[in-house]
Design brief:
Blueprint (H helix, E strand, L loop, with lengths): L1 E3 L17 E3 L6 E3 L6 E3 L4 E5 L13 E7 L4 E10 L7 E12 L2 E4 L1 E3 L9 E9 L7
Parallel strand pairs: 5-11
Antiparallel strand pairs: 1-10, 2-8, 3-4, 5-6, 6-7, 7-8, 8-9, 8-11
């Protein structure tokens, strides 16, 4: 597993043209686009990762688990944040939630993990998440 303390993106909002860590929901939101690359990620294959975070708005963390989407090209996990552009389920764009701190093999890391394989996901404990927020498109 690799530790990332900086990431960049080439993703832009198709409406306001801002660059940001955006997730679009094409195809009726059955798929989402990775916030780092144009790879499609199934929105139904949620990954459960252990977490010490008690309450996360929009997430059920009552069993010490947090749900993420996984991009097999970038090998990162992420989740939909607040709405950047609301145009229905097939055109909406969301900000991204990333892991911002985690424990792996007893050591705390600030940043996010990049996994070599999916079995490594069971070896981390998420301690903090961060939304990469960009202001909403204004009409």
């Amino acid at each position: 597993m690799k530790h990332l303390d900086r990431v960049s993106t080439s993703v832009r909002c198709f409406d306001c043209k801002k660059s940001g860590f955006f997730i679009s929901t094409p195809n009726g939101a059955h798929d989402v686009e990775c916030p780092l690359c144009p790879n499609y990620v199934p929105n139904i294959d949620l990954i459960e990762i252990k977490s010490t975070i008690n309450k996360i708005e929009g997430h059920d963390n009552s069993f010490g688990l947090i749900h993420f989407l996984y991009c097999d090209k970038c090998r990162i996990v992420f989740d939909l944040g607040t709405t950047h552009l609301l145009q229905g389920c097939t055109e909406s764009i969301y900000n991204t939630i990333f892991i911002s701190e985690y424990i792996y093999k007893g050591k705390t890391y600030v940043g996010m993990p990049q996994f070599d394989n999916t079995s490594e996901m069971s070896q981390i404990i998420v301690t903090k998440i961060k939304e990469m927020y960009s202001e909403k498109c204004i009409y």
